Every structure is written in C-alpha cells, then in structure tokens.
TrEMBL record:
Binding residues annotated for cob(II)alamin, in chain numbering: 60, 131, 155, 166, 213, 238-239
Required co-factors: [4Fe-4S] cluster; cob(II)alamin
Protein name: Epoxyqueuosine reductase
Keywords per UniProt: 4Fe-4S, Cobalamin, Cobalt, Cytoplasm, Iron, Iron-sulfur, Metal-binding, Oxidoreductase, Queuosine biosynthesis, tRNA processing
Family: Belongs to the QueG family.
Annotated function: Catalyzes the conversion of epoxyqueuosine (oQ) to queuosine (Q), which is a hypermodified base found in the wobble positions of tRNA(Asp), tRNA(Asn), tRNA(His) and tRNA(Tyr).
Reactions the enzyme catalyzes: epoxyqueuosine(34) in tRNA + AH2 = queuosine(34) in tRNA + A + H2O
Protein EC: 1.17.99.6
Domain 4Fe-4S ferredoxin-type positions: 173-205
C-alpha cells in the first residue's frame, strides 16, 4: 500500500471516529465548471444584498489561493437531522439551528482532525473551513463523491438525504482522490413545486434574493411586503425544499449532543414566540446560529408572519 493510500485511509477512519457522516477527498485545483455559473448568478443579482458573495471571486474558485501549495480538499459531512421537531402550532425554525451554532461544533472537530494528521503524518499545513470563508462547499463535496447537487442546489446523498453540514480541510498533502457520483434527481420537481416564494427559478438555480432563508437571516431591512402570506410560518431559515425531497425519507437522527435544542424550544407555540422577551431569546438561543439575526431580527420576522 502506498503512503498516499495509507494516509487517505487514516484520515477517513479518524473523520468517522470524530462523528462525521462521511469524508471525500478531491484534488485542490481551479473549479472550472463553477466559474461561469457563479459569475452568471452574481451578474443576475441572485445574491440580493449578500455583498460578501461578490468578494474574493478568485479565491472561491481556487483553493491554492487560500492555502499556499495546497494539494487536497478534504470534504466532510456532519448530520444535524433532529430526533424531535417543533410543535405544529409554532412559527418554524430551520432544523440546522435547533442546537449549538454549527460553526463552533464543526470547527472544533476540524481542528482535531488537522492535529491528528500532523501528529500521524508529519508537517502538513492546512486550514479548516466551515461556511465562513470564500469556499464553494457544495461544489467540493460533489467533486469528492459525497453526493450530487440537487435541483434545489443543496448537496444530496442517496443513503442519507441532505440534512447535514458541509465543511473542509484544505491541506498541502497529496492523497488518493475520490470520483464524483451521478445525479439522481431524475424527473422529480418536488422542491421546485413546493418552494413558497418560487425561489428555485429553474432546476439547479436558486434566486437567493427570493429565498425565505435570505429574507429571515441575511436581509437587514424590512421584508418586502409583496411576500406577505408566502412564508409558510418560517421565522428563521426554511426547510421546505429539503422536507419535500424524496431522498430525505432516508434521514436518520444525528448523535451529536451539542445539536440537541434547548428544552423549551420545541414546545413553544406561536403565542410564546409573539411574546418572546430578550431574556428568553438569550436563554433559548445561547450559542445558537439564531443569534445571527439577533433578537430584533427575529421579532421582525415574527411580526411579518402575523396575520
């Protein structure tokens, strides 16, 4: 067995031990196919007010600009599918935001994995990325065979669906590379048909500026009134396109204690949300991704949902 193959197996075994759902590896090189697609998406203003999407265009497409002399992109998936969901009498919160902010949870695991690589293999330089730097996570995960990008533009995996986070380590170590998988969306259009705001404008294209997640998390000003009545009770994020996807019938509950919600969260009713105080917000969303929208932002979203 070559050293490269040995290192690859070591890394994948350790990733599993750390609780990652799966691990795929691809060669760190310019993302040729994604370049024109990203450019067109930006030119059509589908990023709305997410100005940061315009920054670092080259870095988004070329990992060697992020990590000098990088050779491999190690993509990792972490399941967040919950065992219990909110009461049906509630305003809705995207399932990924039930527990501790995933940035903290995953960053910690990635650091452990990088230290493991350095301890076992030697002087390896690399950086950990969790959705907070100019890295096209889904493109890398698809390239490394972890799934295909579905018509709703989320990564999909046959055995487990799409309720997982994607993260990566970019390292200056040569490894064995995985091959992409094939697309299994077929003729299905469930996600396109179900999107409350018609944000999926055509298969594999999402107009971010029409997405409920964008309005409830990214948009800092008032939500445009023409979308009144179209939010299907989502107050933070939206899972509709994932909930209706047939592949998510295979989702299994995660086993990460940090992703368990605050005990009060699941039983809160619409009335509780309408009356939420800053103290309750801070208690229920301590270390949560919901802090991103802040108390005022969540209140704005709830007001928008009221009749």
């Amino acid at each position: 067995m070559s050293a490269k193959t040995q290192y690859t197996q070591l890394i994948k075994t350790e990733a599993k031990r750390l609780g990652f759902l799966s691990c795929g590896i691809s060669e760190a090189q310019f993302l040729e196919e994604e370049a024109p697609r990203l450019e067109k998406w930006l030119n059509n203003n589908m990023h709305g007010q997410m100005q940061y999407m315009e920054n670092h265009f080259d870095k988004r497409l070329n990992p060697t600009l992020l990590v000098e002399d990088s050779k491999s992109v190690i993509s990792l998936l972490l399941n967040y599918y919950p065992n219990h969901e909110q009461t049906t009498e509630s305003f809705k919160l995207s399932k990924y935001a039930y527990g501790t902010d995933y940035h903290f949870v995953i960053k910690d695991k990635l650091k452990q994995l990088l230290h493991f690589i350095q301890d076992e293999i030697g002087e390896v330089h690399g950086r950990a990325f969790v959705d907070s730097a100019p890295v096209l996570d889904k493109a890398w995960a698809a390239k490394s065979g972890l799934g295909w990008i579905g018509k709703h533009t989320n990564l999909l995996t046959q055995q487990v669906g799409s309720f997982y986070f994607i993260a990566e380590l970019i390292v200056d170590l040569e490894l064995d590379y995985d091959l992409p998988t094939t697309d299994h969306c077929g003729t299905c259009t469930a996600c396109i048909d179900a999107c409350p705001t018609q944000a999926i404008t055509e298969p594999y294209v999402v107009d971010g500026s029409k997405c409920i997640s964008y309005f409830t998390i990214e948009l800092k000003e008032n939500i445009p009134s023409e979308f009144k009545g179209q939010f299907d009770d989502w107050m933070f994020g939206c899972d509709v396109c994932q909930d209706v996807c047939p592949w998510n019938r295979f989702s299994k509950s995660h086993s990460e204690p940090l992703f368990h919600p605050h005990p009060e969260l699941l039983s809160m009713t619409k009335k509780d949300w309408e009356e939420i105080t800053k103290d309750t917000f801070n208690k229920v969303f301590k270390n949560s991704a919901v802090k991103r929208t802040k108390f005022e932002g969540l209140k704005r979203n709830i007001e928008f949902l009221k009749d």
